[in-house]
Amino acid sequence: MRTIFVVMSLLAFPVVAAAQPVDWQKYVVPETGANVDLPMTIFSKDAGQPESGYGRRFLTADGRANLTVQSVPNKANDSPAAFLAKMRPPSDIVYRRVTPNFFVVSSFRKDKIWYDRCNFAGRFMNCVLINYPAAEKRQWDSVVARISDTLTSR
């Protein structure tokens, strides 16, 4: 029975995506001008404000994945490396890339993959934070890549 559930879970995302084209829309954080392409067909539910900073949270219709677009004040004008260090990320990060302009970190938490990217933008760090089922990694790879690649500031 568990095998059937796992197979159905793996099939659910592509079937939904194939049933209707993905509607990519530019989301702009009004207070900072940070912007990113979001797949509104996938993240169709507004989940309100993030816990800190400016931006918006979104959920999939079934709640299995979430995305936050967030501009966090960078009062100390920290580099991406210094900002990441202050966030005290867990030691078991699977993927980490830090440059003078951005950082990306990703790992597993229970049955989810979490992915965080923050771009240096002077007074702010503009970030996308995505959590999605680890069992659906392959189906999410291109979605996460486009979101991450389109994060910019005005």
How does the SSE layout of this entry go?
Blueprint: H1 2-19, E1 24-28, E2 35-39, E3 45-48, E4 54-59, E5 66-73, H2 80-87, E6 95-98, E7 102-109, E8 112-121, E9 124-133, H3 137-150
Antiparallel strand pairs: 1-2, 3-4, 4-5, 5-9, 6-7, 7-8, 8-9
Notes on the protein architecture:
This protein is of the alpha+beta class and 154 residues long. The chain contains 3 helices and 9 strands; from the N terminus they run H-E-E-E-E-E-H-E-E-E-E-H. It has helices at residues 2-19, 80-87, 137-150; strands spanning 24-28, 35-39, 45-48, 54-59, 66-73, 95-98, 102-109, 112-121, 124-133. The strands form 2 sheets. The protein has a 7-stranded antiparallel β-sheet with strand order 3-4-5-9-8-7-6, sandwiched between helices. The chain has a two-stranded antiparallel ribbon with strand order 1-2. A hairpin with a 2-residue loop joins strand 7 (102-109) and strand 8 (112-121). It is globular, with a radius of gyration of 16 Å. The protein starts with a helix and ends with a helix.
Largest sheet: 7 strands, antiparallel
Q: Hey, roughly how much beta strand do the residues contain?
A: 35-45%
Strand arrangement in the largest pleated sheet: 3-4-5-9-8-7-6
Helix content class: 25-40%
Total helical elements: 3
Sequence of secondary-structure elements: HEEEEEHEEEEH
Report the C-alpha radius of gyration, rounded: 16 Å
Distance between the termini: 50 Å
What is the molecular shape? globular
Quick take:
The protein has 154 residues and is α+β, with helices and mostly antiparallel strands. The protein has 3 helices and 9 strands.
